Amino acid sequence: MVKRLILMFLLATAVLFSGCLLRPKTQITTSTPTKPTQSQAEKETDPLSETADLFTDENGMVTVRISNGEIGLAFNPKKWPDRPEKLGWKIITTPEGNQQTRFFPVKGFSGTVKAVCIGQMPGFAASYAEAWGIAVPIAVFLMEDGSLEWLWADPSWYMGGPSEGEDEAIHSMGKIPWLENIVSLSYESTRDGSSEEKSIFAQDSAGVRYDLKHPCNFQSVFYGVWRCNLRTEDNYSAYLYFENHDEVKLEKGWLGTKTEIYVGKYQLYLAEDGLQGARAGNIGFDLTLDWSIQEGEGLMDVPRTIRGTYLVEFEWRGVRPGFDFYLSSGDNLHTEEGVGWPPVYRFRLGDMPGGFDYGVMGDQELMEYLLSSVPKAGELVYERGMIVLIPGDTTELADGSVCRNIWLGTDTGDSYVWEIFYTIDRWGTIYQYDPVLDTWKVVS
């Protein structure tokens, strides 16, 4: 899935950034003698000292243990909601009589962990898990050097059986970039207008506070290219991608044809109370026109610079992850006849302009593309005898993409039973329909 791909990307690239933040306040923290007992089903084999520091979230879903410099993480199944498929929970009984999983070792830290804060952050868009129907808890680790590291505390990643990592360690997702000299973490309520939600906050040595949902959200922008459909009638689009630590490029055009290229710098606004000059969760661009198809002909409705600040709302529940830009101040990212358009810039994970248009593929080519791109589909057709139907109809996704439908089914002799439903957009992204959750999921 796209989320897993993004998580792997974050794990690989987080080391490029330095700095982080923290501060415990409402965080539930205990220090207690810990000597696990043995259940009939399983033995706890982790080496322990006489005492261990234990950290848990306010709902008791996740517990992190620090013992002799070793980090472990356990789950309490009774605190998690039910889901359609059952997980292979393997339960032990703690000395206090609590039922939980064993402590999975947590590896991959860049230094020594000083403190831990665990909580659900609904404002961190990628933390929402459809399988659970909730924002899964996030564990944030305050390091001795004042940086922060974090991980997703989702048990389905570790309890799907041996092939899914039953006996493997949990790994840190790396440092939370842009923040440094953090001295404390806290889990608090925050209000945005009439709505209230909870989040993990960090405070640095200068007393500046940060809601960690913002840097966690912004980490995702470094994955891939982001596409915004500027005109639905002809699919004229903007393509945005981020480079290095502060560089960004904005391209406009159609699939296969660029019309404008802007390059420049971006600035993230992360501090609470507007201490950086704009509300936390904004991004600022300072872009200069680098090339235009109209060069030498007089630039018509093509600004030479784009300097603006935009409030960013991240969205992870659709078929394509992405974010929406709302103009806070300065220039629009795009204008039509001098008017900023569209009112909201909806960027979704996309492909670079100049790529092949899968919307014009022949049926045979489209079938071969599906079977070669999705190994499971290829196996079902080539090895198990399922057949392919391309009915010629389309599906419009939530982001406005129009996709071509493909079915896999079985010939029973008297009729065909259509069982697996795929759809492919013009950029080559393949989605599979999940009838249980009534959603489309990216499979390639």
Could you characterize what this model shows?
With 444 residues, the protein is mainly β. The chain has three domains: 2-210, no CATH class; 224-350; 359-442, no CATH class. 8% of the residues lie in helices and 43% in strands. It has four helices and 32 strands. It has helices at 2-13, 213-218, 363-373, 375-382; strands at 28-33, 51-56, 62-67, 70-75, 91-93, 99-101, 104-107, 113-119, 128-129, 134-135, 138-143, 148-152, 170-171, 182-192, 195-204, 209-211, 225-231, 236-243, 247-254, 257-269, 282-292, 305-315, 322-330, 335-336, 339-340, 345-350, 387-389, 394-396, 402-411, 416-424, 430-434, 439-442. It has an eight-stranded antiparallel β-barrel with strand order 17-18-19-20-21-22-23-26. A six-stranded mixed beta sheet has the order 1-2-3-4-7-13, with no helix packed on it. The radius of gyration is 24 Å and the shape is flat. The N and C termini lie close together (8 Å). Residues 11-49 and 161-166 have low confidence and may be disordered.
